[in-house]
């Protein structure tokens, strides 16, 4: 039986985007070259700019370096596939529909308790957080071929990238302060640098979205692992 959640238990893109960012910070991918982030763009041009700056150019750079050291270049080809998938789903990810389900609750209410337990199709009982966790974890394991036993290595890699980003942010603001603060006293420039760096670091690392309770790895293995 196919059950559309519709207006009974709707799943909106805002929730999916929020979930994905928190999930990939807690359970990062093994081959991760940047810090995961998810956001919607109201402008097509801004979306394309974000894609080229954050994905296409870094992928091209990594492939170029891989070619120089004799390794296989695969990132540009991979992102080309991702881009084609994004384009194919563009209409559906930028529009919304509400499907009204009136007969399903009536059918559910007409069933006895025993039948409800045996044939549970009540979409209102579906926990989207748990469903999305199992779904995305399945992508990690069966499509991306991530080894969950190497999760700590992936987290260590993500921590290194956060450190690198912090160092680059600090270097960026140092250059800016030195350039525009030419002739200013040293302690004043350091104060401006500290405020700019601290503010940037906070905004880039703090998640202002609602916190989603994620399953632990042990709970996932106990309830859905196979």
TrEMBL record:
Q: Name one GO cellular component term.
A: peroxisome
Q: What's a GO biological-process term for it?
A: long-chain fatty-acyl-CoA metabolic process
Q: Which residues form a coiled coil?
A: none
Residue ranges of the Fatty acyl-CoA reductase C-terminal domain?
Answer: 55-146
Any GO molecular function: alcohol-forming very long-chain fatty acyl-CoA reductase activity
Under InterPro entries, the record lists: FAR, FAR_C
**Which UniProt keywords are given for this protein, alphabetically ordered?**
Membrane, Transmembrane, Transmembrane helix
**Bilayer-crossing regions:** 163-184, 190-208
Q: Which PANTHER family match?
A: FATTY ACYL-COA REDUCTASE CG8306-RELATED, MALE STERILITY PROTEIN 2-RELATED
Q: What is this protein called?
A: Male sterility protein
Q: Which organism is it from?
A: Oesophagostomum dentatum
